[in-house]
Model the fold of this input.
Amino acid sequence: MEEINSANVFPSSFQLFPLGDAAIVVQFGDTISEEVHATVRAFSLLLEAQPFPGFIELVPAFTTVTIYYNPWLISQKGRYDPYQSVVDLLLPLLTQTYQEPHELPSRLIEIPVCYGGKYGPDLEFVAIHNGLSSEMVVSLHSATEYMVYMIGFAPGFPYLGGMNSLIATPRRDSPRPAIPPGSVGIAGDQTGIYPLQTPGGWQLIGRTPLTLFQPFRQSPSLLKAGDKVRFVPISEKEFLNRKELAHES
Done:
């Protein structure tokens, strides 16, 4: 099946192509930007509000939305080409995405972080790599308002855009086998937060006492795509106090 390109139909181009026999990918661009991200979110909200028969779930990413569907159920509706049927069902939503303005909900969430020391063992390396002091790295990292572009890699792991290029640092040569939950790291020109204990190769500069992922809550992930994040430096004493309060609750 050939990909569908509608560059001549809509103000912005998109492409649709199959992913296996039970999913379709809608690609809205090939660069990471707030404009493309807004289109991804707008389309995702429309599809969630108007799901088609056989729809299972959608997974938004930096520039794409992947839609999973039940091909057997769609074929039972008298549609013998499930992929083309889903394409036909999605095109009106894509038209609506580009032609109607959308109010996109957004939250600003402050993430307290204890930087350096045992909580951020790579802070000094990041500073030396960029010819800065550790204090300047903390200042630059916490001065930015970040956009949550997507949740991925591990449950609740936010990929954040907007980090100052002055503190960009490559990943570690040797990944750590276990990263403590709440660790804040840098990899290239991105920053993120490890919600769970997992292996990882990001440069760790701090840790938050907040729990980013709680599977038994109605909304398991603290952060969602479209949220804005600001890091707030705190002392070790405040970090421990907040951890204790979180444990008691």
